[in-house]
Design a protein that fits this description.
Blueprint lengths: L5 H20 L3 H11 L5 H8 L3 H13 L3 E5 L7 E5 L1 H12 L6 H13 L1
Antiparallel strand pairs: 1-2
Length: 121
């Protein structure tokens, strides 16, 4: 069990991390996470939305932004125009490399949670 009062600190830490991320890469946290998930093989919007626990409409806005920033391309697959594959562009790959190289000042509990999550996946 967690103390509900700790939730506020977690929210503030996530906001601080996102601000640092935006300053370094011009991406929001969700945009960065979307690129990371795409790198792991999630190439369709539905899969990305499920993996990030984001609504399909929110995922569309994130993908629109990444497309406008020229980080991804969208390709229709098959005859169904609704079926789209998301692919990182050259710029997207460069941004992803920058994300991997970032050194953000993360609270110790976030690092511990990330390591535990990596072990489980």
């Amino acid at each position: 069990m967690y103390d509900l009062c700790c939730l506020r600190q977690i929210m503030l830490d996530v906001k601080r991390i996102e601000e640092a991320l935006k300053q370094e890469t011009s991406l929001t946290l969700n945009e960065a996470l979307c690129l990371c998930q795409n790198e792991k093989g999630h190439t369709d919007p539905s899969s990305l939305a499920r993996e990030l626990s984001i609504s399909p409409s929110r995922m569309t806005r994130i993908l629109d932004s990444l497309h406008n920033q020229e980080c991804i391309s969208r390709t229709q697959t098959g005859e169904d125009r609704r079926t789209v594959t998301i692919t990182m562009t050259k710029k997207g790959v460069e941004v992803l490399k920058k994300l991997h190289a970032l050194s953000l000042d993360l609270p110790e509990y976030v690092i511990t949670l990330a390591k535990e999550s990596e072990k489980n996946t």
